[in-house]
Design brief:
This protein is of the alpha+beta class. It is 35% helix and 20% strand. It has 16 helices and 22 strands. A hairpin with a 3-residue loop joins β16 and β17.
């Protein structure tokens, strides 16, 4: 009798500031179970505002959320053997101090902790070349600054301790030994993302003697062990399932958007606009407004945030009027009214200024014309952001001769306003890019489950995305309308330049 292959299931764990979210996802991306467990957020301690937490609180909350997940899964799956892998993601920055056996020696220090303010100057001086290549300066929230603080202030303790990140500690609890970390999680601890190592200057210039106190560096999606008997007893998960290295919350959430190839973007329209993408080399922003993290296969995840997004809907028109105005405005697009719909004074990206203000040109009292121009103007501004990113990717540097590392990939749109078919089509026509609305968006826990599937089943981001994420609707650029928008976009760029908002 031929055996029946049961669908594989993957567990994603996301830890944020006050709770743990867990998602159990099938091999085809169906969300089977979502569970969470809250914990008490940290509080400043003393006049110096040390911000600490017992790391066991993270583990206990994680354990409870996994137990809740397993209990619910009993009615969703046929056999425990369907559970194949688990992965953990979190925000980078927290530092767990452990002994050589991996046991905490005291509270974990959170990124908000400000004790290491005096160590930053020395780090940026001795690590100047490193910082220039990585595109950021060390700050008091950097784990490396806190490590330097330990070296200077508690030398007798420093000799006998090691350092982990939040995800490293939880991964250690799952597999029985905390000995690995992921490149992006370790970036602000001094990891060289390009060379994928702990650089020499940490010990030879800073004299920290720290490289043997830090975990082994691995890529996200790499299998780093199997679930231990102890963790199985604590969580209800079966022993032997793969423990796969996770990454930052931002990266995991981005992967859950569906973007998978170099040139793909994820755009989230909320009050502002968040644009994330994949490039074939590390982009650098001298203003340090861009998140840049490592992906497998010599690819990079980057993300920027703009103040200009969809806030104008509520401020200028009222959110409840959107559907009615949208139906009427459809007949006016494309419109010769050019809008930069910024309702919050100032901008972050693609230009940085405290004085940027929105405009509609020519001025009009026609509410419908205003509304249509703002729909179009948001898409124009989105394209403006892509133009800046294209320019940044094309700038030559000492590490690459590639002329353009952001090709014209697809846009994966999420957020409340991606539900508007008319606006999605407008954005596709204005940007000239395929715009995809994905089926649901599970966020960082879903992304962590995808990463678990990468390491325990599919072996690559592209393969996991192809199977686990599907598009609910696809909007192709209309060639005739795109030609009209191209001329209007030129007018938009001219007006932005006249206002001083140059790329």
């Amino acid at each position: 009798m031929q055996s029946i292959s049961l669908p594989a299931v993957f567990i994603g764990v996301h830890i944020d500031a006050a709770r743990v979210n867990v998602s159990a996802i099938s091999e085809t991306g169906e969300i089977l179970v979502e569970a969470f467990s809250s914990f008490t957020p940290h509080n400043p301690i003393g006049s110096r505002k040390y911000i600490e937490i017992n790391p066991e609180i993270w583990w206990e909350s994680t354990r409870i959320a996994i137990v809740n997940t397993v209990n619910q899964l009993r009615t969703k799956i046929t056999s425990p053997s369907q559970l194949k892998a688990i992965s953990v993601c979190c925000n980078p920055g927290s530092l767990v101090i452990v002994d050589r056996a991996g046991n905490p020696t005291g509270p974990a220090i959170l990124s908000e902790d400000a004790r290491a303010i005096d160590q930053v100057k020395s780090l940026n001086y001795h690590g100047q070349e490193h910082c220039n290549r990585m595109g950021f300066q060390f700050k008091p929230d950097s784990p490396l600054a806190k490590i330097s603080w330990f070296k200077e202030n508690l030398p007798e303790i420093y000799e006998n301790i090691c350092f982990l990140h939040q995800a490293d500690y939880i991964v250690g609890k799952l597999k029985g030994k905390a000995d690995v970390t992921e490149y992006s999680l370790a970036m602000k601890t001094g990891c060289d993302l390009g060379e994928e190592n702990w650089p020499d200057w940490l010990d030879y210039d800073m004299h920290l003697g720290v490289r043997d106190k830090l975990p082994r560096l691995v890529a996200l999606g790499e299998k780093v062990g199997t679930l231990s008997q102890t963790a199985s007893s604590a969580t209800g998960l079966p022993t032997g399932i793969a423990v796969v290295m996770g990454t930052t919350s931002q990266t995991a959430s981005f992967l859950a958007s569906g973007a998978r190839h170099a040139g793909d973007f994820s755009t989230v329209l909320q009050k502002g606009m968040t644009i994330s993408g994949i490039s074939t080399r590390m982009l650098r922003d001298p203003l340090e407004q861009m998140l840049v993290y490592k992906l497998p296969g010599n690819k990079w995840f980057f993300s920027v945030e703009s103040k200009t997004g969809a806030e104008w809907i509520n401020v200028w028109f009222g959110q409840d009027s959107f559907n009615e105005l949208e139906l009427q405005a459809k007949e006016l697009l494309p419109t010769t009214y050019i809008a930069y719909p910024n309702v919050t004074k100032g901008e972050l990206f693609p230009f940085n200024t405290n004085s940027a203000e929105g405009f509609i040109s020519p001025a009009t009292d026609n509410k419908l014309a205003q509304f249509a121009s703002c729909l179009q103007g948001t898409a124009m501004f989105e394209r403006y952001c892509y133009q800046k990113l294209d320019a940044m990717s094309s700038a030559p540097d000492s590490q690459s001769t590639i002329s353009n590392v952001i090709s014209l990939g697809d846009i994966y749109s999420t957020g409340e306003w991606s539900a508007s078919d008319m606006w999605m089509q407008c954005r596709a026509d204005v940007t000239g890019r395929v715009n995809r609305r994905v089926v649901g968006h599970g966020g960082a826990a879903f992304g962590a489950a995808m990463i678990a599937a990468m390491g325990g089943y599919y072996k690559s981001l592209e393969a996991a995305s192809d199977r686990m994420i599907s598009s609910e609707a696809i909007f192709l650029p209309n060639s005739e309308t795109s030609t009209i928008y191209a001329d209007l976009y030129a007018n938009f760029c001219t007006l932005m330049g006249e206002q001083g908002y140059l790329l």
